[in-house]
């Protein structure tokens, strides 16, 4: 009995909680309509998609400090700090809005494809890639000039993307449960793989140093992919309704934000990737970005009243309750 108890205590020490919890909220207000959220670590700004605008938030002061308005169904936001530019995908106008990071002034709006969704900046080639969710392709844009270079086939239902900073881009294909590798210089797909047994992946995060990808599926499973071999090497359990994934390179933690109202934390322990903690958040807080300086997670959500008896679908959000949920230690 003593030996069993000792083993149980040791196991508890290995799987100890990471210490994350809700530490604050930052009010945005207005309509409860959102998608991606992006962190600019260099300039200490969080960019929040908000329907027809992007709200610019100072996470350290905990307040909105600017707005980029007159947009057209915002999806994704990418930051090119080295060029002092940001890029926003517009669903209804099939375009990418380019803006100045300091002044927030619009610098251009090149055309993209059908329903441009995720957008990623690839720093080696200085190119921006809009992933056209309904167009089964991606549009490459010269980040310096704003000129469209090429639109090339990728496959249907492209979701989140990640860059390795060395000329490669990775994209989840939601419908086919696949992961793509794109050569940014050639502007073409170079590798494709299945993320099975994970299904219909949305969120994607990257560990550049250790060459791993973290793809979250809607069947409560994260696919950990080894980039060199392009194979799934682990499938830790996550919560239901995930959308985004994140990674803190200093702490070695991968995150899945789940619509059921929590964040799953995945970690490499004794050579195995596994879920080591679940942090309670709020219902529908399923999109997020990671602040690696303060080791915080910023999630978007709003307040929702309890569903009435017999009510179908989710209730409308409480007016003016849209906010950032700040999770940290």
Label this structure with key terms.
51% strand; four-stranded antiparallel beta sheet; disordered N terminus; single chain; Methylamine Dehydrogenase, Chain H; mainly beta; 1 helix; 329 residues
Structural class, from helix and strand content? mainly beta
Number-wise, the strands total 28
Compressed to H and E, one letter per element, the order equals: HEEEEEEEEEEEEEEEEEEEEEEEEEEEE
Shape: globular
Lateral arrangement of strands in the main beta sheet: 1-28-27-26
Q: Please report the number of helical segments.
A: 1
CATH homologous superfamily label of the domain at 34-194: YVTN repeat-like/Quinoprotein amine dehydrogenase
Beta percentage is over 45%
CATH class descriptor name of the domain at 34-194: Mainly Beta
Look at the structure and give the mean pLDDT.
94
- For the record, the CATH architecture of the domain at 34-194 stands as 7 Propeller
SSE diagram, text form:
Blueprint: H1 2-14, E1 21-27, E2 37-40, E3 45-50, E4 53-58, E5 63-68, E6 74-80, E7 85-90, E8 95-100, E9 106-108, E10 116-122, E11 127-132, E12 137-142, E13 148-153, E14 158-163, E15 168-173, E16 178-183, E17 188-194, E18 204-207, E19 212-217, E20 221-226, E21 231-234, E22 242-248, E23 253-258, E24 262-269, E25 272-280, E26 287-291, E27 296-301, E28 323-328
Antiparallel strand pairs: 1-28, 2-3, 3-4, 4-5, 6-7, 7-8, 8-9, 10-11, 11-12, 12-13, 14-15, 15-16, 16-17, 18-19, 19-20, 20-21, 22-23, 23-24, 24-25, 26-27, 27-28
């Amino acid at each position: 009995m003593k030996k069993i108890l000792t083993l149980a205590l040791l196991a508890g020490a290995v799987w100890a909680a990471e210490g994350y919890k809700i530490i604050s909220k930052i009010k945005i207000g207005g309509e409860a309509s959102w998608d991606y959220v992006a962190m600019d670590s260099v300039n200490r700004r969080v960019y929040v998609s908000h329907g027809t605008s992007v709200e610019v938030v100072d996470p350290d002061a905990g307040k909105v400090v600017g707005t980029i308005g007159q947009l057209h169904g915002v999806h994704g936001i990418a930051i090119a700090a080295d060029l002092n530019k940001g890029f926003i995908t517009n669903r209804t106008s099939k375009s990418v809005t380019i803006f100045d990071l300091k002044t927030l002034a619009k610098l251009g709006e090149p055309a993209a494809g059908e329903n441009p969704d995720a957008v990623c900046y690839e720093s080696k080639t200085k190119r921006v890639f809009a992933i056209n969710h309904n167009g089964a392709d991606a549009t490459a844009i010269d980040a310096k000039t704003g000129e469209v270079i090429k639109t090339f086939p990728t496959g249907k239902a492209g979701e989140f993307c990640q860059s390795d900073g060395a000329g490669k881009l990775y994209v989840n294909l939601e419908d086919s449960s696949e992961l793509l590798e794109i050569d940014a210089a050639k502007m073409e797909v170079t590798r494709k793989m299945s993320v099975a047994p994970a299904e219909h992946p949305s969120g994607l995060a990257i560990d550049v140093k250790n060459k791993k990808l973290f793809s979250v599926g809607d069947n409560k499973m994260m696919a950990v992919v080894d980039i060199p071999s392009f194979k799934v090497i682990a499938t830790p359990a996550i919560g239901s309704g995930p959308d985004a994934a994140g990674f803190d390179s200093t702490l070695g933690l991968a995150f899945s934000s789940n619509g059921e109202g929590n964040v799953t934390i995945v970690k490499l322990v004794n050579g195995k990737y596994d879920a080591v903690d679940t942090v309670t958040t709020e219902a529908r807080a399923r999109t997020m970005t990671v602040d690696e300086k303060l080791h915080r997670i910023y999630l978007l959500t709003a307040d929702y009243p309890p569903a009435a008896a017999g009510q179908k679908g989710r209730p409308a959000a409480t007016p003016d309750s849209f906010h950032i949920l700040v999770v940290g230690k």
